[in-house]
TrEMBL record:
This is Protocadherin beta 7. GO terms for biological process: homophilic cell adhesion via plasma membrane adhesion molecules. Residues 134-242, 243-347, 348-451, 452-563, 578-673 form the Cadherin domain. Gene3D superfamilies: Cadherins. InterPro entries: Cadherin-like_dom (IPR002126), Cadherin-like_sf (IPR015919), Cadherin_C (IPR032455), Cadherin_CS (IPR020894), Cadherin_N (IPR013164), Protocadherin/Cadherin-CA (IPR050174). The keyword Signal applies. It is found in: Membrane. It is a single-pass membrane protein. The chain crosses the membrane at residues 690-713. GO terms for cellular component: plasma membrane. Keywords: Calcium, Cell adhesion, Glycoprotein, Membrane, Repeat, Signal, Transmembrane, Transmembrane helix. GO terms for molecular function: calcium ion binding. It comes from Equus asinus.
Length: 797
């Protein structure tokens, strides 16, 4: 028989599965599986993958799990095979009590993607409990005048099994006076009734002892017994009668202990002790005895313990009214417990995912179920979260909800969310439950490093020591962890000097961005250079940014002034010729010097340190012009030696000196007189000396011719009274050509001057304008020669 039932159950499962596959899962009936109680742990129940039409391994890939309302782990799912196994022995009576069928609902939860399948485990009863009586001895008092056919209700036995294994029959031990009738009390309950077959005679049989046996319907059947003692009493011909045979009352579940439930009332026509009525429960269950109490005199029924609608909705009590003669009557009281909103909603969390990666699209954060043990409107619920959160609740089947992200999260804006899930029922007053969860946002490398400045300017003084720390760059990254750990590097910027590679100039600390000069820098060779720096984080993929660094080399006074004219090359000294007729302030020559430094380090000043005849010559401190300090006389020596010092304005100052030889002559026609110390050298001079003398004579002649022309122009201008300052001659303008003065005169370099004669002057003079010194430009180290415009001041005789 058991095998046939098992096959029938399996056929029903196949039939149900075929029906379920034809409709949508959202509204499908739950899958049903059957198991007998006390089945051994590990018993195979079904293959969920096959029943749901899922492929092998799909349950494992989709994150399957078995969940239930009570979180009772009575089932075990193998996600690899889809086998559903029994996780523990089940006791149907402990799980469901008298409820039939015993159904344990559970759900199969698939997380990726989210899907729920409902199922039920039906626990079949086995005959593992014997019927039992609350009292091992039942006492009956029967009047001897009782007529045959009178029936006496006996205590019913209790059997925890259900269905066919429940209580099915009663028997009485063989005797001559009584037999048993079994009556159905409704709702599957049967009651034994003892029926009198013949008149009792107290004098003959004052007491009887019979054995009452209760049998269930199991195979094999189980039984329980109780002793029935019958005392034969004298005649009491009226039994108590209740005003109502059935009382129905409704009691709110929050009624206080001791409150009145109902008052029953019975009456007896007898007098004396036979008319005195005593009220009591008639073989009540243990639950009833713990919950209610009755006043034996008044018949008032009161609460002895608190009611709970969720545990028990209806109580059926049998109350007996018994008079002093032993006769009794019975009535039934049905107590309906009404629900009040006394249970707050419950939230059962199935899964919670934290942390959540930022920038992720819609992501399931939590899966949970809500329930309320009340009924009606008291069990209707509303679920919500705060409005200012980037999350949304989505309802599903069976009061399941999913908490998902409404938009991608940004960890840099907010790294942690405290979410309060509020569940409120619709009862009066409304009750609510709050569940707090914390969701962390994990970092994704979505922010590139950012430098504190787009460009940096650093200053370093030349002649620095190698490995000198010259400055730092700094960048920040709003990401976290390895995504915020930065590595600094150098980036060359085009165009690059192949002779000065960046790697030979600076280096950078990859961890903190400190910059170091790798070599001693020379301002005169390199005033400034630029390069790029990069900051790269350690994320995957790595992000980076760049900034520009400009290094300015500061000048140090490390170069002494260099005299361009007169040259100090160790050859024959240069001699300057001065006519004895020169007036005070006559320009003898000009010392031209440069300084490789810059700024105030290149500001030059000139000073006459030593002279053959002090007071005769002077040097202008700012432009190096050597001029006569007074009129010359015949007593002045013809040869003079001047020592001029050129000093810069650095700290400490640097200087150079140059020696000038000045020869006083009566006129430019006077032959050149060599210096005594140079006589020996001139005797051995090469032919170039001869050429220089000839060139000097030519220049002197040209100079005299220019003076004559100048005098002629002056005379012409006076006669025509023309405006001053215009270079002209009586007949035609004076040609504004360039006069080339070669180095054959008193200057050892070639100069070109633009000549303009000024009319109206009291003395014969000409002016050197805009000296063009190509040879000096070639000797300059890239710096502009600073000359005073007075270099071309008037030269007079």
């Amino acid at each position: 028989m058991e095998a046939r039932m098992e096959r029938a159950v399996q056929k029903r499962q196949v039939l149900f599965l075929c029906i379920f596959l034809g409709v949508s899962w959202a509204g499908a009936e739950p899958l049903r599986y059957f198991v007998a109680e006390e089945t051994e742990r590990g018993t195979f129940l079904a293959n969920l993958a096959n029943d749901l039409g899922l492929g092998v391994g799909e349950l494992s890939a989709r994150g399957s799990r078995i969940i239930s309302d009570e979180n009772i782990r009575f089932l075990l799912l193998n996600p690899l095979t889809g086998d559903l196994l029994l996780n523990e022995k089940l006791d149907r009576e402990e799980l469901c009590g008298p409820t039939e069928p015993c159904v344990l609902p559970f759900q199969l939860l698939l997380e990726k993607p989210f899907q729920i399948f409902r199922a039920e485990l039906w626990v079949r009863d086995i005959n593992d409990h014997s019927p039992g009586f609350l009292d091992r001895e039942i006492l009956l008092e029967i009047l001897e005048s009782t007529t045959p056919g009178a029936a006496f209700l006996l205590e019913s036995a209790q059997d925890s099994d259900v269905g066919i294994n429940n209580l099915r029959n009663y028997t009485i031990s063989p005797n001559a006076y009584f037999h048993i009738n079994v009556h159905d009390g409704g709702e599957g309950n049967i009651y034994p009734e003892l029926v009198l077959d013949r008149v009792l005679d107290r004098e003959e049989v004052p007491e009887l002892s019979l054995t009452l046996t209760a049998l269930d319907g199991g195979s094999p059947p189980r039984s329980g017994t109780a002793l029935v003692r019958i005392l034969v009493l004298d005649i009491n011909d009226n039994v108590p009668e209740f005003v109502q045979s059935l009382y129905k009352v409704q009691v709110p579940e929050n009624s206080p202990v001791g409150s009145l439930v109902v008052a029953v009332s019975a009456r007896d026509l007898d007098t004396g002790s036979n008319g005195e009525i005593n009220y009591a429960f008639f073989y009540a269950t243990e639950r009833i005895l713990k919950t209610f109490e009755i006043n034996s005199t008044s018949g008032s029924l009161h609460l002895k313990a608190e009611l709970n609608y969720e545990a028990m909705q209806t109580y059926t009590l049998t109350i007996q009214a018994k008079d002093g003669g032993g006769l009794s009557g019975k009535c039934t009281v049905v107590v309906h417990v009404t629900d009040i909103n006394d249970n707050p909603p419950e939230l059962i969390m199935s899964s919670l995912t934290s942390p959540i990666a930022e920038n992720s699209p819609e992501t399931v954060v939590a899966v949970f179920r809500i329930r309320d043990r009340d009924s009606g409107n008291n069990a209707k619920m509303v679920c919500s979260i705060q409005d200012d959160l980037p999350f949304v609740l989505k309802p599903s089947v069976e009061n399941f909800y999913t908490l998902v992200t409404e938009s991608p999260l940004d960890r840099e804006s907010k790294a942690e969310y405290n979410i309060t899930i509020t569940v409120t029922d619709m009862g009066s007053p409304r009750l609510k439950t709050q569940h707090n969860i914390t969701v962390l946002v994990s970092d994704v490398n979505d922010n590139a490093p950012a430098f504190t400045q787009t460009s940096y300017t650093l200053w370093v003084r030349e002649n620095n020591s190698p490995a000198l720390h010259i400055g730092s760059v700094s960048a920040t990254d709003t990401d976290a962890g390895a995504n915020a750990q930065l590595t600094y590097s150098l980036l060359p910027l085009p165009p690059q000097d192949p002779h000065l590679p960046l790697a030979s100039l600076v280096s950078i600390n990859a961890d903190n961005g400190h910059l170091f000069a790798l070599r001693s820098l020379d301002y005169e060779a390199l005033q400034a250079f630029e390069f790029g720096v990069g900051a790269t984080d350690r994320g995957s993929p790595a992000l980076s940014s760049q900034a520009r660094v400009r290094v300015l080399v500061l000048d140090a006074n490390d170069n002494s002034p260099f005299v361009l004219y007169p040259l100090q090359n160790g050859s024959a000294p240069c001699t300057e010729l001065v006519p004895r007729a020169a007036e005070a302030g006559y320009l003898v020559t000009k010392v031209v010097a440069v300084d490789g430094d810059s700024g105030q380090n290149a500001w030059l000043s000139y000073q006459l340190l030593k002279a053959t005849e002090p007071g005769l010559f002077g040097v202008w401190p700012h432009n190096g012009e050597v001029r006569t300090a007074r009129l010359l006389s015949e007593r002045d020596a013809p040869k003079h030696r001047l020592l001029v010092q050129v000093r810069d304005n650095g700290e400490p100052p640097r200087s150079a000196s140059v020696t000038l030889h000045v020869l006083l002559v009566d006129g430019f026609s006077q032959p050149y007189l060599p210096l005594p110390e140079a006589a020996a050298e001139q005797a051995r001079a090469d032919p170039l000396t001869v050429y220089l003398v000839v060139a000097l004579a030519s220049v002197s002649s040209l100079f005299l011719l220019s003076v004559l022309l100048f005098v002629a122009v002056r005379l012409c201008r006076r006669s025509r009274a023309t405006s001053l300052g215009r270079c002209s001659v009586p007949e035609r303008p004076f040609p504004g050509h360039l006069v080339d003065v070669s180095g054959t005169g008193t200057l050892s370099q070639s100069y070109q001057y633009e000549v303009c004669l000024r009319a109206g002057s009291g003395t014969s003079e000409f002016k050197f304008l805009k000296p063009i010194i190509p040879s000096l430009q070639s000797q300059n180290t890239g710096r502009e020669v600073e000359e005073n415009p007075s270099f071309g001041n008037d030269l007079g005789f």
